[in-house]
Amino acid sequence: MDEIIKLEEVWKIYNEGEENQVIALKNINLHVKRGDFIAVMGPSGSGKSTGMNLIGSLDIPSHGKIFLDQHNISHLSESDLAQVRGKKIGFIFQQFNLIPNLTAKENVMLPMIFQEMDEIERIIKAESLLKMMELGDRMDHYPSELSGGQQQRVAIARALANDPEVILADEPTGNLDTHTGEVVMKFLNKLNNEGKTIIIVTHDPDLALEHSKKIYWIKDGQIERVTEKIKGKWKTLKKVPNE
Amino acid sequence: MIKDYFALALKNLKKRGIRSWLTLIGILIGVAAVISLISLGNGLKAAVNSQFNIGSTEVLTVQAGGISGYGPPGSGAVKPLTEDDARAIGKISSVQVSIAREVRSVKLIYNNKAAFTYAATVPDNLQQDNYLYKIADLKMQSGKLIYQGDRGVIVIGSNLADSTKNQLGRDLKVGDKVQINGGDFKVQGILEKQGSFIVDNAILMNEKDLQELLGYGDQVDIIEVKVADESLMNQTQNAIENLMRQRRDVKAGQEDFQVTTPQASLNSVNQILFGIQIFIIIIASISIFVGAIGITNTMMTSVMERKREIGIMKSIGARNDQIFYQFFIEAGLLGLIGGVLGIILGTGIGYVGTAALNAFIGSSAQPQISFFLLFFTALGSFTIGSAAGIIPAIRASHERPVEDIRA
After folding, report:
1. What are phi and psi for residue B280, nearest 5 degrees?
2. Predicted complex ipTM
3. How far apart are CA B302 and CA B20, in angstroms?
4. Side-chain half-sphere CA neighbours of B227 within 13 A
5. Could you state, in order of their start, the residue ranges of all structural domains in chain B?
6. B323 to chain A, minimum CA–CA distance in Å?
7. Which pick of A44, B34, B134, B405 has the fewest CB atoms within 10 Å?
8. Strand pairing partners for B121?
9. Residue B343 has pLDDT above 90, yes or no
10. Cβ–Cβ gap A101/B11 under 8 Å
């Protein structure tokens, strides 16, 4: 299987060289295969969110290289990064992050507008995605008229709008109760079964253990260990020694 | 694609609070001022022209100089014009007719009350009477005009007939008897309201009657000259000036008389109007400028408030230029809405104002509103709005998604 995402010796240092320098990520090496279901686990402040921003091309590394689908994206301009992430990555956020002024359907159409897709095509695609998310009867509702679980499903539909290679979910169930969280995870699993690469970032070990295939455990900006589910059982692949 | 940005911008505008709409008042007032100014132009000109009784364009007026600014025209003249002057002017080939007229202050008594006004003479000459009435375009409310041989009768302006305006405590009607400077006269006709303070307060009488009342000899206040053709106006003006210089023995540049054309009067009226227009345009420009600043301000606030939204759009693939266009167009639409409201208000003022002027002076001016005017005003408001939105839009497009989404 080929690699969709590769991080090579990636560092993220805030205020580098200054007195208040903060090292958020130290020398991260990470490989994500196409079709994988990865969880990035760690307590808050461990650097997992910074990692997600880098993987999602929302931010660029201080040092090291990031490859997305074999392309080095470490030094792209803001607008080029936007185009790349618009095509290759679908984001799902803890706070859903729908645009409040737009209906469910318009929210799903928005990424397609930014890719300059034809209007008819956009409408057809948005409607079919929302139906897939079992929201066929909620298409013209505004986010404020939808429950949390429904909003997150709209967000998943939006993440899928441009047929991305990777779905990147940051605490996707963080703002949902257990039941609706389960529903959202069920959809992510379904997408994974259909071949999409899924990366979730979470601090909830149960969620990671139940749904993902491989877990990167992060602590203090470093990968502490990597575990993988092989034939239903979790095995530690490697342990990164503390410096 | 640009259509999508318009749709998005409209969506955002719909959710705006009253604060955003208040910032449009500047643009609204500026545009309304410009539109009403332009649309009222015709009506204003008609109104001013009628006030100064500028009618026929083939008429020259000759007056003696030294106008003091007090009393009726010619009365302050050091060396008055004479009937001979009028006859001499009448002999110039391009002059169709030359009419000598007197305008004098008089006291009219009726119902034991006095009104101070002025009397203007009508020639005791049928041909000249016909020309005079044609030039002045007088219409009758009742009764009839004064012609050669009509003695002891007067025609009065509409204000003099109206008890609310004539200080006589009673309406004057055709057939009523009045006293003017001691002489007995009968009202033979009442003029229709002209909207000109000159005509509406006048008394017209036979020149012989006024001569008998006041005894001013062959002295003349105004000579009205009807020129054969409009194209001969300048030529005739020069000819009269030359003639009068000779007759009065003055050098060029030291004239103690003046020959005015309606064109000259029109020009001075237009100059006044032009000054007013410049003033209104300056006010309108300031208003529009303030409006534009208001749009910049509200867009800036909007960018701050929507940082998170901008971050979200960037994270789902919006390029910098796509964010820029959204805010740029939104600002343009704000300007356009202000402009359209201003157009509606300005057009309303134009129609109502013209109708009011027409009712007041009895003219029939039409508001000057064209499709092009409205189209370019709307386009201009959009341009001003979007220009005001450039800086906020650049600000928005440079927002960094990482910082915004988590805010």
Report:
1. -65, -35
2. 0.89
3. 9
4. 23
5. 2-52+266-405, 59-260
6. 9
7. A44
8. B205
9. yes
10. yes
Check if the beta carbon of residue A88 is closer than 8 Å to that of residue A69. Answer: yes
User: CA of A115: which chain B residue's CA is closest?
Assistant: B317
Q: Would you call A99 and B321 a contact, using CB atoms and an 8 Å cutoff?
A: no
| B342 phi and psi angles, rounded to 5 deg | -65, -40
Euclidean distance between CA atoms A179 and A186, whole angstroms:
11
Which residues does residue B206 pair with via DSSP β-bridges, in sequence order?
B122
> To which residue do tokens 């060029």 refer?
B252
The residues, any chain, with a CB within 8 Å of residue A242's CB and separated by 6 or more, are: A222
Residue where the block lists tokens 């009607």:
B173
With an 8 Å Cβ cutoff, is B320 touching chain A? Answer: yes
Write the CATH number for A126.
Answer: 3.40.50.300
Domain count, chain A: 1
Structural domain that includes position A7: 3-239
3-state secondary structure B113-178: EEEEEEEEEECCCHHHHHHHHHHHCCCEEEECCCCCCCCCEEEECHHHHCCCCCCCCCCCCCCCEE
How crowded is the C-beta side of A182, counted as CA atoms within 13 Å? 2
Give residue B96's identity as a one-letter amino acid code.
Q
Q: Least CA distance to A156: which residue of chain B? A: B316
Whole-Å CA distances, B199 to B134, B150, B195, B364: 15, 20, 8, 19
Q: Do A58 and B402 touch (CB under 8 A)?
A: yes
